[in-house]
Amino acid sequence: MTLLFLAANPIVAAAIAAAAALCFVYLVRLNQLLSGTPAEIRALSPSPWTTELLLKTYRRLEANPITTKSYAHRIPPKLARRYIVTGGSGLVGGYIVLQLLERGQPPESIRIVDLRRPDRDDMAHGPATDVDFVQTDISAPESVGNAFEKPWKQDLGHLPLTVFHTAAVIVPSDRSKLEYGFCEAINIRGTQNVVEAAKRFGADVFISTTSASISIRPVQFWLSPWKLWSGWLPNFWQILDEKDFWLPLRKHEDFYANYPASKAAAERIVCEANTAAMRSGTIRPANGVYGNPTDNTVGGPLQSAVFPTWTPHIVQSFAHGINTAIAHLQFEAVLALPESHQKSQAGRPFIITDPNPPIAYRDLYLLVEMLSVTPFRTIILPPVVILLLAHMIEAYTLLRLRFPVLQWILPPMQGDIKHLKPAIFSICTHLVAHNDVASRPVSRGGLGYTGVLTTLEGMTQEVIEWNHLHQNPTKTKRFQSSVSLAEDIQRATSARSHHGESKHAMMK
């Protein structure tokens, strides 16, 4: 019937064909932009990794691996203090614990406050096994209070207390306020709970891990046709710095997703808590933090034999967990001084990154393909097709949330595809960070920060450790990513919430 109508109305048919052609041309142009690298960014990443460089680095690090002992001289000196590390089982928190131990802090002076026990291989032996652990849900004030209230050994209880707050949930794909509750509960209210407990139990140094993604502005994709041909997409490449901190907190929709919005709010809570009694500040690692197979940056490709991607050309800065932890300890060395609350370092964030120019994702993919003992290959997809699919997945997800009755009919998305939403494109764009401020001497308002290892060394070392674990097929280990862990926490939190509501209803 439609074909007969079009045949009888050639003008309508011609108009539809012209509109389709224009849409096709528009999408081709958008795909061209999404597949490009601006000259300004290419200039910042001038030297792609080569096969020869990767093999040379692999052989060097296999003979002389990076361990806490190998960079012990770079760790700030031991302080006579106690330590609570929220999220101490995770990537950054785990490295903080290991560095504290390496510099001579007694295990009994450190307490890990986390939802789960450490599962890292580098924390499964030695002094790390003697570190106290308190299972804690930071979204629950009583749970946090119990973790802080637990007595210390008698000869330690008088020591000043440092809190490293690294616990958070990473949900990089959700941007709707309908999905904000989970990030808000853990990243904002959880931070508030930890800050209040730290004050109540006498902590005088409080340093939190936030994220350089706070400063990311959403990429604007759907421009008028004439603007699409006039240059790059707005925010398609960005320099990440701390300038946003000195401005009023942006509106929710001015963040690329719920995660950075919640981390920005949490950062303000920490920095505004700075007083003479408790000096505070935050570290913003840029942009993807890596350093253990549980990370998404390197661990994701390592665990994928076939890796679909649209980002080989994307250039970004990265921060190894070791470098991020070192920055926390350097910050502590400044804030441990009682008069430091009035110094320019207190009550503010510092961006840090690896001590090298940014790299392209194709460098990472070449590294995994060349060096990993497990199979790996990429499938390059047209970004505009993935962007359209991401909008459809987000629309489906939000439809179920806006109209709960539809949840009886429409099943939830399963697998990794549920994370494919438009917000991902703003975190997977050209993002270059610098730690110029953090690297200044302490006398000039910085932290004296210098990274211990480069991105090339850090990513190669992670592949070496992966290979050692997978050379014997009977001993292979499956790692849980931070995004997958967030899903488990969300399910557990939801289950506890439903149980509490049912119990309250029964009591009524």
UniProtKB/TrEMBL annotation:
| 3-beta hydroxysteroid dehydrogenase/isomerase domain boundaries | 84-214, 253-368
What PANTHER family would the database entry show? BIFUNCTIONAL POLYMYXIN RESISTANCE PROTEIN ARNA, SHORT CHAIN DEHYDROGENASE_REDUCTASE FAMILY 42E, MEMBER 2
User: Which organism does this record belong to?
Assistant: Echria macrotheca
- To which protein family does this belong? Belongs to the 3-beta-HSD family.
The protein's GO terms of the molecular function aspect are: oxidoreductase activity, acting on the CH-OH group of donors, NAD or NADP as acceptor
Entry keywords, A to Z: Oxidoreductase
Q: Which Pfam families match?
A: 3Beta_HSD
- Record protein name field: 3-beta hydroxysteroid dehydrogenase/isomerase domain-containing protein
Q: InterPro entries annotated for this entry?
A: 3Beta_OHSteriod_DH/Estase (IPR002225), Lipid_A_modif_metabolic_enz (IPR050177), NAD(P)-bd_dom_sf (IPR036291)
Biological processes annotated in GO: steroid biosynthetic process
